[in-house]
Amino acid sequence: MKNRNHGCMDMVRIAAGQINPIIGDFEGNCRKMETIATRAKEAGCQLVVFPELAVSGYPPRDLLERPSFITDNLSAVAHLMESIQGIAVLLGYVEQNGERGENNLYNSAMLFEDGRVIHTVRKRLLPTYDVFDERRYFAPGHESVPVMWHGLRLGITICEDMWNDKEVFASRKYRVDPVADLCDKGADLLINISASPFHAGKPAFRERLIASVATRYQVPILYVNQVGGNDSLLFDGASLGFNKDGELAARADSFVEELLIFDPMGDASQHIAEAPECIEASVYQALVMGTRDYVTKCGFKKAVIGLSGGIDSALTLAIAAEALGAENVTAVFMPSEYTSSDNDEDTRSQAKHLGCPYHVVPIAPMFDAFLGASETFSREEHGITEQNIQARVRGTLLMALSNKTGALVLTTGNKSELAVGYCTLYGDMNGGLALISDLPKTLVWEVSRYINRGGETIPWRVIDKTPSAELRPDQSDQDELPPYEILDAILHAYVEEVKSPAEIVALGFDAAVVADVVRRVEINEYKRQQAAPGLRVTAKAFGYGRRYPIAKRIVS
Questions:
Q1: Which one of 138, 222, 303, 483 has the minimum C-beta count within 10 Å?
Q2: Which helix (H) or strand (E) holds 71?
Q3: Do 296 and 333 fall into the same domain?
Q4: CA–CA distance from 185 to each of 109, 124, 403 (Å)?
Q5: How many alpha carbons fall within 13 Å on the CB side of residue 225?
């Protein structure tokens, strides 16, 4: 192992600029970085570090195919090089590949100071799994070499470049390890710029990974992560600094923008933010941030929700009120003849407690009109058709209110329902954002109880009651589905762990139940591909991270 130049680090203070960019908002993103750089310089820092693709925002996806997008990105970098003086800057941007091959772009990091480019690093490990498809756009870099800066050998990596450690990953996706290459060449300090999406449990794993690398190579590490919501992806920030012994020296707050100052030697007093206290806390904070960012980045200011008296819509309302301000979230109660009086009381109570505007629109007259429109429909033979009509009446009302007021409709279905098709196209699936669509029903209850830890934000009766769609007399979800504890365990094994039905049965589940759940998952792909975008909080969400065909034979 090379001798580390720890003496030079005594004089270095580095700032992590944990920012929340908007994809394609080059002017706004530049302003954020200029402001953070000024604050970092005033705090006595010699270097400020920004996340992966901070200039454009991550992930830009097929915007990268537009020549003007690349040109605007390069112009923004040139502007920053001119406008930020007196402090070195490391940032992520899109670099053009001079070879002009099939992939003529690099996902790159540039280190510059006082208008002069010091070093450029190109991301070597380009992920193509789950929500990532970087090989579609970028060519990989070919080498990892430290750069000398102020007497220090900096080893710079970009996000996935750190996620191939042979001591941590039993099965590695790549043949090369950029971190090992840099440390073998004598890097004194490792810096990783990232846009690492959040899912439950990932922040703790990330810390273990970085601590392990720091300890093995006896080198300090600064990890700088993007924060904010970009469509379905939520980025938690939680930027980190570890000393050479793998001890946590600095941690930024999660789910907010922050300037974090890191002393690589760990001698100065540094900020170590508290991590979210539990999985439910991190999921709740992620959903609040993701809802706020999706609504506002898409140009909306208000939202509207169909509040039914059930736990899903109650949780959706609580999250939206926290994200957007209660005065900006309208709750609409749409009772039918099958709606219980408890739901009337509970919806009024929650809306009043939160301070949300509340409207009651009975759907009985409209439902009756539909039933009378054709002799095909029947109140006496009340089946799935008549249940779906009620859901579609409600969906039409909510979309009409959205058109009239400019508020975004938030759908209220959870992951368990979406998985097995226990939802109605053009009814309760109507809307612009499905904010709890990646929460299994059991997690819906857990997050709701977490929210109520300090008071009754969600009426306890709503949390404790037996789930029902209330679309026919005496209806219960368990009339058609297994108990949610069993359903969610099977879905976790099948969707997130990609186990076969036989493997799931071997875990102790009833074979007939497993077969029915798998059948429901597979035949309802067409519904999910028409659903509103959802916010990803698990390791495998429905959406563009799970790309299944609609027309297929059920996979065994």
A1: 483
A2: helix 67-83
A3: yes
A4: 19, 17, 60
A5: 28
Residue 10: is its pLDDT beyond 90? Answer: no
Task: Tell me the C-alpha to C-alpha distance, in Å, between residue 156 and each of 98, 106, 190, 317, 421.
Answer: 22, 15, 6, 43, 46
Terminal-to-terminal C-alpha distance of the chain: 49
pLDDT digit string, tens, across residues 233-273: 999 999 999 999 999 999 999 999 999 999 998 665 689 99
Active site residue 297: no
**pLDDT per position as a tens digit, 330-370:** 999 999 988 889 999 999 999 999 999 999 999 999 999 99
For the chain, give the mean pLDDT. Answer: 94
Asked if 237 and 295 sit in the same domain, the reply is no
Q: Is residue 533 part of a domain?
A: no
Domain that holds residue 392: 282-476
Annotated catalytic residue, options 52, 113, 160, 207: 52
Neighbours of 554 (CB within 10 A): 11
123 is catalytic: yes
Given the residues 32, 123, 302, 527, select the one marked as catalytic.
123
pLDDT in tens, 153-176: 999 999 999 998 888 887 888 999
State the average pLDDT over residues 510-534: 97
Q: Are residues 184 and 328 in the same domain?
A: no
Task: Note whether 205 and 316 are same-domain residues.
Answer: no
Crossing angle between the packed helical segments 441-451 and 279-297, to the nearest 10 degrees: 90
Cβ contact 201:209 at 8 Å? no
Name the active-site residue from 45, 159, 183, 423. Answer: 159
SS (H, E, C) 158-194: EHHHHCCCCCCCCCCCCCCCHHHHHHHCCCCEEEEEE
Q: Is 298 a catalytic residue?
A: no
Are residues 155 and 179 in contact, defined by beta-carbon separation less than 8 angstroms?
Answer: yes
Looking at residue 269, its pLDDT comes to 64
Compute the average pLDDT of residues 385-390: 91
> Which own/partner pairs from 33-39 qualify as long-range (CB within 8 Å, at least 24 positions apart)?
33/80, 33/84, 33/89, 33/91, 34/80, 34/83, 34/84, 36/259, 37/84, 37/87, 37/89, 39/15, 39/259
The pair of structure tokens assigned to 15 is: 């700032």
DSSP state of 507: T
User: pLDDT grade, residue 26 (50/70/90)?
Assistant: very high
